[in-house]
Amino acid sequence: MMKIVLAFFCAVLLGALATHHIPESEKHKLKQIHEECQANPATHVDEELLKKLEDHIDDKKVGAHMLCMAVKQGFMTHDGDLINEVIKSKITLVTHDETKVDGLLKKCAIKHETPEKTAILLKICFKQNDVHYYYDI
After folding, report:
1. Whole-structure pTM value
2. 92: Cβ contacts below 8 Å, ≥ 6 apart
């Protein structure tokens, strides 16, 4: 029984070490960006919608807000062109295993049919793959 408990503890510990959480300075920057996007009527959105982002991929207000965030973070242009060097640097900042960075970049930094959808799906991909570079409300 003790071996099972020890094995479970080790597995949990290794999982915790697999990713880094976002530094406080970056959290502060993301909070500021979020507040700037929320202050603009064109990019303001009900924060409850952002908490369930996966359910609102096609919502125009959510898309406008997420595009605002992605542009201000330097992840992409207003036209939807991804800036892979910036995205990679932020993935590297919060990923313990540097051998996974390029794979995560390739998996998440995908241009979709609209800039808004690209921004939304980038954040969803980060969350689904434990890339802790995002601002949670």
Report:
1. 0.83
2. 98, 101
